[in-house]
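Q: What would this complex look like in 3D?
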Amino acid sequence: MTKKSRTALLISLAAFFVIALLAVLLFRKKPAGFEPELLNKAGVSGAVLTQFIKVKLFYFSETSDYLQPVYREIEVPEIREELYKKFIALLLAGDSGHITPVPDGVQLRGAYYLDSKEMLVLDFNELLGSSFPGGTTAELEFIYFLVDNLCYNFGEIKKVKFLIGGNESKTLAGHIDLEKPFFPNFDWLKGE
Amino acid sequence: MKNLIKTSSFFILILVLAPLLTALDVNIRTSDNEGFTRIVFEADRSFTYAVQSRPGQMQVRLSGRAAFPAKTMGWPDSMLLERLTYEIQGNESVFTVFFKGNATIKKSFVLEKPFRVVFDLEKSEKAVGATPGSAVSPEKKPDPPQENPPAPSKPKPIETICIDPGHGGEDLGAIGKSKSQEKDVTLKISLKLKKLIESKTGLRVIMTRDKDSEVSLNTRASIANNQLAQMFISVHANSSFRKSAYGSETYFVSLQATDQESLELAQKENQNPVDPGETIKNDELKMILWNMAQTEYVRESSKLAEYIQNELNDLLGTRNRGVKQAPFRVLMRTAMPAVLIETAFISNASEEKKLKDEEFLNKIAFAIYSGISKFIYYYNNILK
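A: Here is my prediction, written as structure tokens for the whole assembly.
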């Protein structure tokens, strides 16, 4: 190997190393503080200028135990709770090729953010309790599908509490205690 | 050309090694508080860990390589902590914390954002026994029996076991594609398990239900507590939105940060004199403590789960989904080592078929019985 080629090799090696290190550092920062990207795109809704954000939704698939990412854009309404509702509507609408762990017909009745507790309260219709298929794994899939997606995309949400038909419910189908709020468990987003 | 190959090889090597460069950024903090010393392992992302207590020290093993600035550090001013050593062993980072005298782990819990594992230590006159961590490795065989007793204040050798067949009556549980009902499967397995335990060990077995009847989750826990059972085994069949999901898993209860907040609030309130008129407030505090009856048995429950899951893996030959934690309502109120076993997925067509086979149910019952036997041996021996 000539001196010239050795120098070229060393330079390219150093460049690769720096790029790899930067890539690694960028990837490891994401799970702790992903912020939805505010897009420089504005639409006109009536006479009002609207803004959009890019969000990262996670769905289940038959081939993995973990949630898989999909990118979407949503319009930012003036009221924060409306943004959460839009986000959840998008989640519940599902994505082709992916699994949405929510029984058919289940709808969100309301979303309330409690600033003092940094907690989002989600109120679903009664169909959630009456049509839930049962099973510990199914309950955990439903809970963390919502909690992880919300907490990942909106840093101000630290925990999520579930209501069914406006009331506290003991469990979804006899397993997980639903009376307490849930913190995210990003282990479900393994690989992110 | 030769140079190009060499450069490409280095590039591939770097890509392969890149994940190893993401060392876990660990920070350790300590503080002395009234009656206990707190040590916090904080990291830039979550990690799995195992804890072992020995006389005069505790060892925290983190999976992966940690970026920690020093190999040793000391705490001259700490009430209980003397020093810490840090080393890499294989793909684990081992932190050994040395105490000033003897100390025990009063409680431990995990917090998020940033990810923290918190240990509260208190002074102890006696040497302490081994304590499994909250993140357990299902692949590992259980440790040999340890020398010293676990958490309960005055434990007795195990004499009574409570078996809890999940669901029942109008609560059908999960339903398979060919209409198998979880409530029937859990009852069949539980009755087989009862027979095995009684015939092979002579221990007293109580059931939360022995026929197709509906029993509330609170009543199930009350039956076990009132009958002074020393072990609670809840038998279930699993279901998932993913039809391909399969395998067995064993759960013990998880203490969420909200539970920890409640417990701390209750303890704080209990330390202060309560106005005799404030009976409602007092009752609320009692409810918090009742709802968290399982708290002081979490270590034993994790051990029990580990033994049972190992036997399920060995005897069933299905996918090992491991030992897991979740806030199960039925487990939270039991004041004894308690686990919930998800034997197989009734939502998976192939496993539903197996769950209809008496021989497969016999195997499940025997695997659970074997796990229980090993736990009894472990538990009774550490009492000696």
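A: To summarize the key features: The radius of gyration of chain A is 21 Å. Chain A has a mean pLDDT of 83.
Q: Very helpful, thank you.
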